[in-house]
Structures are given as C-alpha cells and as structure tokens.
C-alpha cells in the first residue's frame, strides 16, 4: 500500500547534488511528493527532506539507490509519530473592509501571521503540517485566494538524538 | 616549479599506474595532448570515440584493471555515452576523461559545448566537472578509486580547457576522502552462518553465479566453496567461465538462450545461492514464475541489488572474494572441530538428476558433412583452433548466444561481451582493448556478427596502426539474425529491414584495404584448412568471413515474457507450442460464444 514517507538526507554541499538526487528519482520512476533543501549548521553539508509516496519494498530500494550516490552522506527515515514536520505557506487573499477582520480571526485561530496588508488584500504566513495548511486554505477560499505558495516539508526527529549521531560527520567537523 | 593542469593530468595517470589510454584529440582536450608526448603511458588513437570507450571496457574486462579513455568535449564526449551506459550495466571499471569548454564559456552554448556531466549522470557510477587545476589530481585519484572499488563502474571527469592550462604546484598523496562512499567489504558474520545453515538443509541447492564473481576475482574461492559443499553451479552470460564449463559441478548457462539443464536447474531448485548475479529479466523470464520453489541467499557488493527483483531470505552485502573466504573459514573451523558433517547438504540425487538433464538435452546442431556451414560449427571450430588460452569477445545477437553456449570457458575474463546493455558494435573495439590488456602471448578472438561488425569495424585501422593483432571473425549470415529470428517467431515470418547483403561490403577487399590478411569460409569442408592458415598468423590482425547458414536460429529459447518452464529446444517445438496456444485461444473463443 502506498503511503507517505519522510526521508532526511544529508549530502555534501557540492554542485549538482540536487540534480543527482532528482534525476535518480526520475529515472527509476519514484514519485517525489515534496522536496526541501537547505544548509545545515555545517557549511559543507546540506540537508534535504524528501517526502515520497510509496510502498515499503520500494522505499527500501529508494534508500539504497540514494545511498549509492557518492555525495549522499546519510539517510534517515523519520517516523511521523516521533518527528516534527513543518511546511510553510504564504496566501494572498482578497480582503475588503467588510471581510478583513473575519480573515484576521481565521488566521489567529491557525496561529498564522499577517505579513502584508493592502487596500483589498492580505498576505498570510502560516506554518504547520500539511493537514493544517490545507484546512487554512480551505477556510480562506471563499474570500478569494489570489495566489498561494507552499514549501516542501522540513522535519526533525523529536528528542535529543541527531541524524549525525554515531557518524563521522561530527568528528570531521572539528578538523 | 609550477606545472599546467594538463601536466597534472599526465602525472596523475602515471601515479595511478595507467599503462595505456585509448583516445582521440580535439579542441578542448588539446592542452592534454601536448604533455602526452612525454607521458609514461601508451596512447591508442581510435577512429571514433565510441571505439575508445569500448576499448577501455575490453581492457578492463580482460585485466580487471581500470580502463582509461580520453576524448574532447561536445560531440566526442557524447560519443562516449553508449560505452558509459554499457560499462554501467556490466559493472566495468572505466575512467573517462573528457575535455570541456573553458569555465568562462560554460553555459554560453560555446563551440563543442555539451553538458557532459549532466548527460552522463544517470549512466555513470559518478562524475565530476573540475573547476580548478588544484582539484585535478584529487578528482582523477577519486574517480579511479570509485571506478574499481565496491561494485565497479564508469566514472567520468570533465576538464575545462582553461583548467588544463592553469599553472599550479604539483601535489600528490594517496589519501582518499569520500565520506559518502564506503563500500561494505566484509559480510555480516551472522548472515554467513545462516547461509550455511540454509544450504545444509536444502535438497536441491544451486549456485547462481554471475559476473560479480569475475569482478571480484573470486574464481578460486567459488570452486573451493562449490566443491566442499558439492553444489551445482550455473554461470550466467556475464559469469561464463568463472567455474570452468568442464568442471563436473557446472550445469551450464541459465536464461532465455541458456543450456536446457541450466534453465531447469534454476526452475527446480529449492535454494538459490546467488553470488554476484542480479536476477536480470533475461535470466528470470517471467519473474513471478522464476525459481518458484526456491529460497534465496543473495551475496552482492551492491546492497541495492539485494531484494531489487526477488525477495531474499539471507542477504549478505560484501565483496564476493571476501565473503566466500568467510564462508570457507567457517567450514574450516567446523571441520577442525569435527562438526562439518551437519553442514553438508546431500546433493547426490540432485546432481545425478542434473547430469541426466545435461546428457539428455545437449545443444542440438544439425551440421551436414559438406556444403552449408552452420554458425555453431564455425564457432566451435574457432574454439578448437585457438583453444583455452584465448580470450573470446563478442558483439550482440545470435553469434553472441552461440559463442556463449558452444565454447567451453575455463576462467573468468576469458569471455567478454556486452550483456546488460546489449551494445551492437562492442566486439571489434573491445577485442582490441582486451588484446592491449592481455599482451602478445594470449590470442584475442573477436566473434562478431555481420550487423555488429559494420557498426565499428573502422577500429581495425587502430589495430593495424598500433600493431594489435586481433583475430576478427565475422559470422556472416546476411541478416540481423536475432531480429530476424524474432520476426520469424513472433511476427509470422514477416521480415522487416533485417537483410544485410552478405557480400556488401566484400570482407576480403576490406581486409585488403586495411592491409591485413583476409580469409573466407564458404563451406564446412573449407573450415579447418582456412583456420589453420589464420592460426599461423600471430603478428598482425586477421579478418575471417564465415559465410554461414542464414536460416539458423538460436535454441534453446524461452519465449519472451514466458515462464522458464517453457524452455524450447528446437524450432519444431516452438511452432508446435505456438499452434497449441492458437488452438486453445480459438477453443476459448468458441466457448465464449456458447
């Protein structure tokens, strides 16, 4: 059965590494739901968060194929019950004097922020898991969404453990 | 003293112990060809860049060392694509060096610019575009190491022209720092023991031996292991010879055109001991009907192969030579303690059953005493002439299958072909590269088809120019034989674009044009005398035109998409099966109407 899996991938911060990963997914027919990439606390290392919709057997293949890429340092599958997963969403919604306060109220319920105001529109910034962001968008829809953008998922495991525990990455950083 | 990036390339290759590079100069790589005049390695000038990489592959296949090729940017680099994909599929260690336009011109659609690292990303084990000359030594050293270690494969290093001209201080050290690349070499101890327990309890175990064993140089270990546990062995197209065909435990080749007993051994086994093989569709046929009764032990240096196509009971990731060594050591320990007996499966009945299959189902060959020459006869005679010392290199198609079936191989690396990618045109350049690798004393025989030969025969000029005496045998049936066979069998004999006139080109005139001896065999009775003449020539390339029966087909054959239970040994069996299937279909349609 297909379900979403979140992979945290540490990669060497080298040119083309994102292409290598995206290309591997494409040519082996794996489906990427979302992909987010950014720097880590170590400038030589980037961290990707990939959400894939797949069955367990194929997930194992994906992880193995990712591991074969020379620039991939470490892969961790995050357990959804034991991880913090977040996406960010910006929504520009039509708001006239009559509806503005209702929209602000909705935003407050979702702990979202108003980041831009103009005569007939508001831009709302929200962060959370995909279900929350979808609910927010649904409530805003009747007012007229002018445009919307959502980031890929980023995620960390809960507790004190770190993806770099037990690997040589930490030690190398001291050098 | 400062040196140029180009000089750093030469020094790096020297430090890596490279003795030969196969290449072709041109614009962006020009700076490298100047210091090459003084470099401590040979350069073979090819006639097409595809030739350069297939030669590097042939060299690597035959020697186990990394094959190196060097070409310029753009079209030269894209001409490597087929060979890179080939080496990637068959796990051949190749280092490809390409020129690139200057870093300042990259992205501007400059003359002879192509995004070579982008193009080759999915068909190389790794690649790198080098941005500074300081990085050249490190990039080449790492590329060489990645190419030959773990699961071998092709690695490409792209060198912009200004990087080659940049002045730097030369520095070389042996240290390799690849934090994301650490192949697993030793097998997991617990799994090793579990594997032996599973074998001990098997009734009909068989070793499914693939090309990975050859890459690991594990022939001796395989023989010891098979002999101690008395396990029958099938050798795949890529693994032919890793256990000699004349060894009593060798059952034959499995797969679409495998030996009957080889195919059946895998269908009937209750335990597949898979060593360096990858459950390729040409071996398994219909995957869900393959080896239906078998549990699976799978040893491979590439973890991604394990569980990719077939679920595995005992997975072992590691270098095959090392893991087989571990398995043998456990057996040694047990023997010392007098505990070996429980680990030995009783395979007596199973082996005698397989011996019976081998005896009752030999390869069929209907060769008249005079007149028409059967292609299989030609290939057997080639083997009888050059024997066990020679290396045999083939292209892709019928001649490849016959050469795989009919020659009794006696060591890994003796049989070189394009298995995974099925690259027509592989034989001529790969044989030249193999000959460079094995040297004067080992004959190298290219067994090619007339279709394949015409894709790459321009490289004969390289063989002549560089004094590389390969024997080129063309199994000339005037057809794209394998395609014709499929049109005959699957498309009711409607032949479409498969005819190649047998005398165009005239291969004797072609031999003449290249200034090498040429021979032609028209009939079976000419075979021995002609081969004797060809055998006597050892100091220059030779071209032999075998005019063979155009209608011959390759059997046994498992129909494409069918279960391996349906292995057919003759065309008559094929047509009988096809007729039965058609009748059953008609009957079913009739019932539907009722």
Task: Spell out the key features of this protein.
heterodimer; A: alpha+beta; Alpha-Beta Plaits; five-stranded antiparallel beta sheet; four-stranded antiparallel beta sheet; B: 594 residues; Rossmann fold; six-stranded parallel beta sheet; 20 strands
Structural write-up:
The complex is a heterodimer of chains A (175) and B (594). In chain A, strands 5, 6, 7, 8 and 9 form a five-stranded antiparallel β-sheet that branches. Chain A has a four-stranded antiparallel β-sheet with strand order 2-3-1-4, covered by helices on one side. Chain A has two domains: 3-78, ACT domain (Alpha-Beta Plaits); 84-154, Alpha-Beta Plaits (2-Layer Sandwich), CATH 3.30.70.1150. Chain A contains five helices and nine strands. Chain A has helices spanning 17-27, 56-68, 100-109, 130-140, 168-174, and strands spanning 3-12, 32-39, 45-54, 72-78, 83-94, 113-118, 121-128, 145-150, 154-157. In chain A, strand 6 (113-118) and strand 7 form a beta hairpin. Residues 170-175 of chain A have low confidence and may be disordered. The longest helix of chain A is centred in the middle third of the chain and has 13 residues, at 56-68. In chain A, 30% of the residues lie in helices and 41% in strands. Chain A is an alpha+beta fold and 175 residues long. Chain B has 594 residues and is of the alpha/beta class. Chain B folds into four domains: 2-169, Rossmann fold; 189-360, TPP-binding domain (Rossmann fold, 3-Layer(aba) Sandwich), CATH 3.40.50; 375-547, Thiamin diphosphate (ThDP)-binding fold, Pyr/PP domains (Rossmann fold), CATH 3.40.50; 564-593. Chain B is 39% helix and 15% strand. In chain B, the strands form four sheets. Chain B has a six-stranded parallel β-sheet with strand order 3-2-4-5-7-6, sandwiched between helices. In chain B, strands 11-10-9-12-13-14 form a six-stranded parallel β-sheet, with helices on both faces. In chain B, strands 16-15-17-18-20-19 form a six-stranded parallel β-sheet, sandwiched between helices. The N and C termini of chain B lie far apart (93 Å). Chains A and B meet through helix 1, helix 2 and helix 5 of A and loops of B.
